[in-house]
Structure formats: C-alpha cells, structure tokens
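Suppose you are handed a protein chain with no further information: no name, no annotation, nothing but its sequence. What can you learn? This example shows the usual starting point.
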Amino acid sequence: MSDIQKVSEKVAKLYDTYPFPPDPILDEAPPGYNWRWNWLTAYNFCTGMKPQKRDIRILDAGCGSGVGTEYLVHLNPEAYVVGIDLSAGTLKVAKERCQRSGANRVEFHQLSLFDVEQLPGEFDLINCVGVLHHTDDPIRGIQALANKLAPGGLLHIFVYGELGRWEIQLMQRAIALLQGDKRGDYEDGVKVGRQIFASLPENNRLLKREKERWSLENHRDENFADMYVHPQEINYNIDTLFELIDASGLEFIGFSNPEFWDLQKLLGSSPELIQRAEQLTERQRYRLIELLNPETSHYEFFLTRPPLTKANWSDSALLAAIPEISPCIDGFPSQTIFNYDYKIVNLSNAEFAFMQECDGTKTVDDILKTVEFSLDQLRHLQKQQLVMLTGTSR
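A reasonable first move is to predict its three-dimensional structure. Written in structure tokens, the prediction is:
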C-alpha cells in the first residue's frame, strides 16, 4: 500500500467516525446562502458581469456530509451537481441530507481527488473546500481538479493558513504526544484534547485562543476532531500557497475576501510606507499584509482555465446593460440590507430608487430616464456586488 493510500485510509476513518460538517439535516432547503457557491454571483465576482449560461456542471470535490453540496444544488436550480468524497460514512449522510431537502439534481461517488479523472466530462464550477490541505499530495490533487475544469470555468478553493492556526498546530502536537500509541484512535484524541483544555490555566495562550475564536463551533465533537486530531494537515502561507497555485497551471483570479488584502487599512496613515509597498510585486504585498495582520486562518480564492472574459464597462456599454439585483443579498426591498457577505449595507435614497427598478428587463439607460442616478454610482453598486449586469461590455 502506498503512503498516499495509507493517508487516505486514515482520513476516511476519521470522517467515518465523525462525519463532517455536522450541520443538522433539514426537510427543506438550507437557510441563507453562500455567494461563492452560487454560479451567478461567483461568476459576477470574478468577471464583473452575469454569466450567459446557467445549465452548468458543478463538482463538489470532497463534499463531506453534503452541506456545501446541498447549497450548490439549491442555489443553482439549472445546474447538474456531482459530489465526491473518500468517506462512505459521510457520503451516507450527504445522500440523506440532499434527499430530504429536495436537492435531487446530484449524484455521489466514493472517490478521492486523485481519481477524479474517472468522472466523465468537464465542469464549469468546481468547489473544493477544506480538502487539499488534508491530502498527502496537494499538488497532485489540484492538478487533477484542474484537468477537469472546463475552459472559462471557475475553481473555488479553501485551504488552511499557518499564521492564524498557529495555536491549533501546537495543540495538535500536544494531543499526539499524549496519545502515544493510541494516535489514530480519534475518539481518544477528542477525549485527550478536551481534558487538556479543561486543565490549562485561564491565562494560557492556547486556551484563550480557543475561547476567543473556535469554542462555539468546537462544542461538537465532529468539529473538535476535524480541528485537533486530523491525521493529515498542511498549512500554507502566501509563498507556499502560490507555489500550489502555479503548479495547477490555472490562472489566479483573486481572493474572495478582497477587503482583508487592502494594505491601506494597515499602513494608510503612512504615505511613505505605501509608496515603498507599491514597489513590491502583488504577491509580496499579499505576504506583507499577512505578516502585519497574522489572523489568516484560511485562504479562499478562485482560479480559472483561460479564456475567461472579464468585463470592462465603458459608459456606452453600461447604458445598454441590463441590471438586476444580486440573488445573494437579504432584506431587499429595504434601505438596510445584508450584502453578499452578510454585512449590513445602508442604501442611499438614490441607490434604493435605482435598485427598485432593476427588474432584469430594463436597461440602465431606461432606468436613468426616470431615476436620478449616475454611472459612477452604478459602478459603486456593482463593486459592492449588489447588482449584476448583463450586456456586451467593451
């Protein structure tokens, strides 16, 4: 048996013991949304415009208990969805979850990322959340996924970051030491870990970090096991992350939390430092940001297989475009809404009036004949991902 097979068996055993994520199974569609799993909003984020087609093929690579898969089905009503995972136990949960909520446009296969070539065809959207960092060979894994991505498709990835997970790594090693020969007994690992946290003094750094950041989710043994007793984990920094991305042969589109990667928020009060930072490459600036704000517990980003057309809206193209409200906002019609990241946005009277006219049929020019609104204001709405545009950009 190869080392990769041995690691895969250990990972499968963990998730057979503790199916993950442990979200409850509902007899209805899951609440809310994750815009990264909605083809319309993800494509709009990556290109600046609404996609032309909706009848796409989606792969949930490492679907676990089907929490993300269920959202992918319900958020993309015209898509065909495939979910793969190593663990028979978690796949059983995933199948029940999707069956009970009516997410019936999905098929599941017990496969590793390394065997994804066994699936027929290519995929327009591949979702790989929390998986690559748990494989023995992430480069081989990302290359396997890249080979299944259709031209102009999107690959959405989530992997761990080392700086924001430093205390987690220390705790993992402590549990492993105390387990000794029992390492690989995941129930024992959870027991040992909980005993450690219960025994540490209140001012202990590991305990404080657990209480501040993770304890609400870790009251479930499934979460605790996934975080602290996982048999295989790789944590990245910007340098090693882009080594992984470069190895994929795909094009990096961007991080899905661009506000974190805004250097102005950290050094904006010093024009001299900003000027120095402008001499750095983009990747060096990313590295600088994470060094100055080491809270990055994960990286979430999009890759594509070219060609992917990105919009560059001229005034004339913008006037001819058809705007519509993003499907991943909540509370509209109201001037106080939740945006795509569930952050509160207070719309101005002009913004609210314009958005009320965005019915998916009128052009921007049509709306501006009845609503006092500028193209720059529209670009601001678009930048906030509150509206999507359909049309011919040039």
